[in-house]
Design brief:
The complex is a heterodimer of chains A (531) and B (374).
Chain A: E1 2-13, E2 16-27, E3 31-35, H1 42-49, E4 57-62, E5 65-67, H2 72-77, E6 80-83, H3 95-100, H4 104-107, H5 111-123, H6 139-152, E7 157-161, H7 169-184, E8 188-193, H8 196-202, E9 205-210, E10 213-218, H9 225-233, E11 251-261, E12 267-277, E13 281-285, H10 292-300, E14 307-312, E15 315-316, H11 322-327, E16 330-333, H12 337-341, H13 348-353, E17 363-364, E18 367-368, H14 370-383, H15 400-413, E19 418-422, H16 430-445, E20 449-453, H17 457-463, E21 466-471, E22 474-479, H18 486-493, E23 499-501, H19 526-530
Parallel strand pairs in A: 3-8, 3-9, 6-7, 7-8, 13-20, 13-21, 16-19, 19-20, 22-23
Antiparallel strand pairs in A: 1-2, 1-4, 4-5, 9-10, 11-12, 11-14, 14-15, 17-18, 21-22
Helix pairs in contact in A: 9-18, 14-15, 15-16
Chain B: H1 2-33, H2 40-48, H3 52-76, H4 85-102, H5 107-136, H6 140-158, E1 166-168, E2 171-173, E3 186-187, E4 193-194, H7 198-214, H8 216-226, H9 228-234, H10 238-255, H11 258-265, H12 276-286, H13 291-307, H14 320-356, H15 366-373
Helix pairs in contact in B: 1-14, 2-13, 3-7, 3-10, 3-12, 3-13, 4-5, 4-6, 4-10, 4-12, 5-6, 5-10, 7-8, 8-9, 12-13, 12-14
The chains are: A alpha/beta (531), B mainly alpha (374).
């Protein structure tokens, strides 16, 4: 009856808990969706289930029997298959060759394997042709090959990691038909996503995961996207309320009609205009992939604007290179700290220098000043509570939260005038999150202008003085964070609302308790379980 | 904190030591397999190293290996593979020889002129690959290999009598250089002479360390090598950095042939040593792109080169040394990567353990905080 049962799963990485007391039950012959924001711990959980990582606590049961996986091979033997978000196919081999690769012992590499592939393809309506080169296939067809690959290896439980991220709507529908086919054959599917509409249309059951733990289970028939969104973003966290307004009338950064094009002319950013004043935090809400990354790149100078201007105070900086922008007071907390914020194998004090190599205390003229940098790193470690035994350890040996605190401390140290904060508390534990908020707020009081991009709507609403919604590369709506609720913001993020968002008062809905609207509408509403 | 310093030294030494041990054992196995005594060749070669004339030859040879390896290493430090050091140093040596044969200034000007000629030639030749990479995205590996081949043809052309060539018997030369461009050696009596430019090699090593570790430019270069994306976000212009590193690498490469040119041969002829650039790649690898490490690696390589001819007189093949060089490079690649990953994981574990034990820098009530953070 039960295909997968995860009970009390806890996974710690040095200094941070990625998964905490997770419970997940997947019934046989169902599509079970696992939803949560990026960084909520979905992928760690699936790595545990697929044998890529071992849990520190908790048990895994497959078909009622307890198991312990030490590698994905063990998981495959127990009938678990995973379709990764990034396909793992060799372009210059045929579908047949890709499928048998690594599993030649199952059905050989010739006629028997071809027959098996055809049989699987027909049975589940996958439409896979074994003798085509993979390079000739589109994205959706490649995904079906990946699914077939795991079925070929005998999987009865399929994990699909954000399978719809790469598909267009029609392909999504086709994929869902395939999934229903699998379900009707008695297979179980774990479907990871953060697109709520899709989840509701395909899943039999939904488990919501937030900040590393399961917060509740929902049944699509009884749940609205709204309720699901509330469960995902939650509100029992320390709320980042900004006490008093510190907004001044001195513009610090002025963006005017900024446009950025992809190769080929498609607009990634179009007609972006905003002004951030000293002491103001401008929050950008939006589903990921709607232009936030490009906006940050354009502001820090990693991508040149195709048209439009950016001005810092009264100087136009559109043509400035990144280094000059940073020297002139633009701080940068990157979205992906491993790619853009750290040298992972360099010691902490060298990471203190990164991005500020021309500034004091890191340099004297053209010379580096290691002593100065080291002393200042010690200060950051103490002030920002970076948990480390020393400043000579590599950045890679710190936990994500402590890496982030180091980055925040570094960027704040140079007293920026304008701070780009992309997901400043992503993957950070609750205590560190509050500390980072405090630091940002304090700098704001002293006149810092901040562009805040975050997937955590509570963080956005709580910290921002002004809110804008980005959709498809355009700023489509604006809202007043004092009155807006996460779900109102959430619907604007899907492009459903534009212009100025006005908070709609309803009898059961008060701004003080935005997390519990419509309570009592259904006795088994998911928030009840979530609480 | 000292613990981590000590550990870093340990890790730095562990890689080469393991690699050399493995290479020695494998070479011994090769000897056994070919029915020879697996120990005697080594003892013969070690004995060679105790003779002062061999020592002088080892040092002279090592100086050129050292400069070539520094040239390779500076590229490696930013993930740039300058495979073209070989063509760059040969062409640069030839240009220096030609200028030295035709210009005749006082020595204080002549020698800097020749050094400058070599640096500019090397930088020009590598700069072609650099420009191709930043403007057209051509892999520097492919471009520099091609340029090696072209350099050989250019050299053959310049050797023609109607270009700059002077025939001496069957030998192609560029003519004798004026004596003002000769760099006097350090006289070691009967053992011979150490090239004067050995001093230059040492200075380049020191300069290499200072530039990389103590200047802003060096930091940018290392950052680019460690993470291209992080470096770009930190304000390094990736294209300019590629071009600069390529020019410096080529400029250094240009100097690699000069110790022998200005110290001994005084002309660029058919006997001029070739292949130093390729050997420099292995030496830079073995030396972990570190100037001290490269110095040891260059001496080791030069020892294998200069001690192995003696083997022929004892009924062994001197190619054992070449086999050994190859085995060292192979084991180096494997052992360094293994040691690096092991060290990184070990440090992560230890940091985790230290934090759990409450050894947190700058926090007094850290144990409490640690619990609160969970």
């Amino acid at each position: 009856m039960t295909a997968v049962e995860l009970a009390g799963i806890t996974k710690r990485f040095p200094g941070v808990v990625a998964n905490h007391d997770i419970h997940l039950t997947v019934r046989k012959g169902t599509v079970h969706a696992l939803v949560g924001e990026n960084g909520a711990g979905k992928s760690t959980l699936m790595k545990i289930l697929y044998g890529m990582q071992k849990p520190d606590e908790g048990t895994i049961a497959i078909d009622g029997a307890q198991v312990a996986f030490s590698s994905p091979a063990d998981a495959i033997v127990r009938g678990i298959g995973m379709v990764h978000q990034h396909f793992m196919l060799a372009d210059n081999l045929t579908v047949l060759e890709n499928v048998v690769l690594g599993s030649e012992k199952l059905y050989g590499i010739g006629g028997k394997a071809r027959r098996k592939i055809k049989e699987l393809s027909e049975r589940y309506g996958l439409g896979v042709r074994p003798d085509v080169l993979v390079e000739e296939l589109g994205v959706a067809a490649r995904q079906r090959v990946e699914i077939l690959k795991v079925l070929y290896r005998g999987a009865r439980i399929l994990i699909l990691d954000e399978p719809t991220a790469v598909l267009v709507p029609q392909e999504v529908d086709a994929l869902f038909d395939n999934l229903r086919e699998l379900r009707s054959e008695g297979l179980s599917v774990i479907f990871i996503s953060h697109k709520l509409g899709e989840v509701l249309s395909v899943a039999d059951e939904i488990t919501v995961i937030r900040r590393g733990t399961t917060v509740g289970t929902a049944v699509p028939a009884e749940t609205s996207p709204r309720q699901l969104a509330e469960m995902m973003v939650g509100s029992e966290l320390p709320t980042p309320e900004t006490a008093e307004s510190t907004v001044t009338d001195r513009p610090v950064i002025t963006v005017d009609k900024l446009r950025l094009e992809a190769f080929g002319g498609k607009a990634l950013l179009d007609d972006i205009s905003f002004t951030i004043h000293a002491g103001e935090i401008l929050g950008i809400a939006g589903v990921e992939g709607n232009g936030q990354t490009e906006l940050v790149d354009a502001l820090i100078g990693l991508k040149g604007a195709d048209s439009g201007t950016i001005a810092l105070i009264d100087e136009e900086i559109t043509a400035w290179p990144t280094r000059r922008r940073r020297e002139q007071g633009i701080g940068y907390i990157p979205e992906d700290r491993h790619r853009h914020g750290l040298l992972l194998e360099a010691p902490l004090w060298e990471n203190r220098i990164l991005g500020h190599v021309t500034e004091k205390p890191n340099a004297k003229g053209v010379w580096l000043d290691p002593k100065g940098a080291q002393a200042d790193t010690r200060r950051i470690v103490a002030d920002y509570d970076v948990r480390t035994p020393g400043i000579d350890v590599t950045a890679a040996s710190l936990s994500g939260g402590n890496q982030q605190k180091l980055i925040v401390g570094r960027e704040m140290s140079s007293k920026p005038r304008f701070l780009i904060a992309a997901h400043p508390t992503r993957g950070v534990d609750v205590g560190a999150q509050a500390a980072i908020w405090d630091h940002i707020r304090e700098a704001r009081r002293e006149g810092l202008a901040v562009l805040l991009i975050s997937a955590d709507l509570d963080e956005l609403i709580g910290l921002s003085d002004t809110l804008r919604v980005i959709y498809n590369g355009k700023l489509v709506a604006d809202a007043d964070p004092a009155t807006i609720t996460p779900e109102e913001l959430g619907s604007a993020m899907t492009g459903a609302a534009t212009g100025h968002l006005e908070h709609q008062e309803t009898p059961a809905d008060t701004p003080e308790t935005p997390e519990t609207p419509d309570l009592g509408k259904s006795p088994e509403s998911p928030e009840d379980e979530a609480r | 904190m000292k613990k981590f310093d000590k550990e870093r030294v340990l890790l730095a030494v562990a890689g080469p030591v393991i690699a050399l041990a493995v290479a020695f054992v494998l070479s011994a196995i090769v000897l056994v397999a070919s029915g020879k005594n697996p120990v005697e060749p080594f003892s013969i070669m070690f004995e060679q190293a105790s003779f002062s004339d061999v020592q002088v030859r080892i040092i002279n040879q090592a100086s050129m290996y050292y400069i070539a390896a520094l040239a390779v290493a500076i590229g490696f430090r930013m993930n740039l593979f300058n495979i073209g050091v070989d063509g760059q140093y040969q062409l640069a040596a030839m240009m220096a020889a030609i200028v030295g044969a035709h210009a005749n200034l006082p020595a204080v000007l002549q020698i800097p002129l020749l050094l400058l000629t070599a640096v500019c030639t090397g930088a020009f030749w590598s700069g072609i690959a650099g420009v191709l990479k930043v403007t057209r995205g051509v892999s520097e590996v492919v471009a520099t290999i091609m340029l090696n081949a072209i350099a050989v043809s250019v050299i053959a052309y310049l050797w023609l009598p109607n270009a700059f060539g002077v025939k001496v018997g069957n030998n192609n030369t560029t003519g004798e250089m004026h004596e003002s461009g000769w760099v006097p050696g350090i006289d070691m009596g009967a053992a011979g002479e150490i090239y004067g430019l050995v001093v230059l090699a040492a200075l380049l090593g020191i300069g290499y360390w200072i530039v990389l570790n103590r200047t802003r430019f060096g930091f940018d270069l290392r950052a680019s090598g460690a993470s291209e994306s992080a470096a770009a976000a930190s304000g390094v212009d990736p294209k300019r950095m590629v071009l600069t590193a390529m020019l410096i690498s080529g400029g250094l490469a240009g100097l690699a042939g000069l110790p022998i040119l200005l110290g001994d041969s005084h002309t660029y002829n058919l006997n001029f040593p070739t292949g130093i650039g390729f050997l420099g790649i292995g030496i830079a690898l073995l030396g972990r792109n570190n100037p001290t490490g490269i110095a040891f690696a260059a001496l080791l390589w030069a020892w294998l080169d200069k001690a192995s001819p003696e083997l022929d007189f004892h009924d062994y093949d001197k190619e054992i040394a070449v086999i050994m060089q190859g085995l060292i490079v192979l084991s180096v690649v494997v052992s360094y990567e293994a040691v690096r990953e092991w060290g990184l994981r070990r440090q992560q574990r230890r940091v985790g353990a230290e934090l759990a034990a409450g050894h947190v820098l700058g926090a007094t009530d850290n144990v409490k905080k640690e619990v609160a953070g969970r």
